[in-house]
Amino acid sequence: MDARRIGRTAAALAAVAVLATACGAQEPDPPEPEDPAAPEAFTTANVDAWLDATLPGMLEDSGVAGAAVAVVGDGQVLTTRGFGYADTASGAMVDPADTLFRPGSVSKVFTATAVMQLVESGDLDLDEDVSAYLDFEIDRNYPEDVTLRHLLTHTAGFEERIAGLIGVEGTEVDLRDSLATDPPEQVFRPGTTPSYSNYGNSLAGYIVERVSGVPFDDYIAEHLLRPLGMDSSSFEQPLPSDLADRMSSGYADSGGEAQPFEYVGTPPAGALSATADDMAQFMLAQLGTRSDGVELLSAATREEMFTPALESDSLAEFAGAQRMTLGWFQEDQNGHRIVGHGGDTNWFHSHLNLYPDDGAGIFVSFNSSGTEGYETLGLRADLMSGFADRYFPGETAAEAGGVGADGAEGSGVQGGEAEAEDVAGVYHASRGSQSTFLSALDVLNTTEVTALDDGRLYFPADPGTMEPSVFEPVGGGVWKEVGGDRTIAVRTEDGEVTGIVHDAAFTLLPLETERRIALPLLIASVAVLLLALLAWPTAALWRRLRRRPAPGPEGRRWRALVRIGAACSVLAIAGWVAIVLMAMSLQEPSAALIRGVQLLQLVGALGLIPAVVKGVGEIRRKAGWRAVTGTVVVFLALSVVADFAIEFHMLSPNITY
């Protein structure tokens, strides 16, 4: 056991000891309902009992240092709780009233609320082209307007950008500059293809700044935070001194080192810092149930925010699945209307659910990623699902459709086998960088969809949950999760599947055959070039031992140039792997590094010329089939690497990502 593992174990044991002291020698079990289908009493005592029996074990099992939770209902704060550590080194525990967390993209709901305030006042129009409100031009690939409705529903068509998304202390944060300089390309027709976009939401935030005449974080402070008494919350980066000392540390896992405060490059999309107590006040305001009557929006505007914002005239078949409202995700469960939003920074992972018709809400934030990469995704889903099942149960999947939760006894749909076969295939996410070198991730981050014999679809790794899932057809291109409440929708054009929308703001796109085979061909080609590089000195040694003549001066020259091309191609691919890994971990590779790797890639591609000359020379002088075959194989390998580089924009002059 290494020192890191020992430290993690010690921290976990300490956490258990402290929590046991705080909660009693034994974690209380929540009382069982007399009727499993009946809701539990939605009271402070019952919710606290459920949280005490649920969260400590979650944190311990997942290697998460701490969490903050807020639950509201019946027009009041039922409970706000802190679990685990805000700082593992000092032993400071999470205090829901005092400890600030980073809700990440839950910030987008604040941005959407600000937009709707200005819509309500008549200063903004949801369906006006955004150019009417901006002081810079947006490059467009489609003639249709881009509207605030599109921005708030992630359907403006922008690809994703990673560069500058999150930085550390010393990072310059300039909202206009981050939006106007090297903006992402518009790759989808507006209003047609849900594709989650930090850029789009931040553009909406900048419009709030432009129209209101004050900086975005000042607008939020004046019009959202202060009216609600959210004195322990802020979009400022760095935080004001009176809040900075109360900020929870963020961790990779509970045994790791505390990480620096993160600077979000586009603040409207994720820069909020807030306590659980403050988030409770925000939930009550969104529900319109604050006892003091303070409202951020009118009841009509709140309802508009909670209603799906695009219909089939725009989304086509996609409108049949869960959709985006104006800033919220549809996350209905157990027959209850639920809107929600998740959020992640490098270290903080959060989720918020509101029940508009039931006057309830729950917010949770974790300050660690956990020991597994997607640990907190499951934690949040389990907590939200457990809350719904306990306090707002409804029809089970079996009662609703006769389908077992395990999917083993599905009824299927007559004729659904052919439909499922049409959908089966390999897909990539619409949320990506289609015009940059990060488009190479399309061949890595794929989703496989399999048609089952009974006409259902099987996802070995559902992109919404990272768990296996099964969906059955319900008609109109819509498929419902077996044993769950999620829906997906399949869009077809001329009999061909063009996309699968899932989780409201994400679309899976078919991966073309040539791209599907690109990675295996690249791996094989790099292997060939490596073998060739090793074979050439071996062949020279063999000729010397057998006292065979070496190629003439001209042959040696072309052979050396081919070797240089092969070596540069291999080094370039290794360089791109390093660059992509850095970018995905939000460590910005320098422009010099990217340009250097591009130079290697170019020299490698130019190696095709001496390979042709070398091959022709070998044929002319009848060098033998082995020599000619070897040169042809190396030429093909160089061609594959060069084609991959061109296809995935690795030689593009624009290195923005």
UniProtKB/TrEMBL annotation:
Superkingdom classification of source: Bacteria
SUPFAM superfamilies in UniProt: beta-lactamase/transpeptidase-like
Keyword annotations from UniProtKB, A to Z: Membrane, Signal, Transmembrane, Transmembrane helix
Keyword Signal: yes
Listed name of the protein: CubicO group peptidase, beta-lactamase class C family
Domain (Beta-lactamase-related): residue spans on this chain: 52-376
Key word Cell membrane present: no
Alphabetical list of PROSITE patterns matching this protein: PROKAR_LIPOPROTEIN
Entries under Pfam families matching the protein: Beta-lactamase
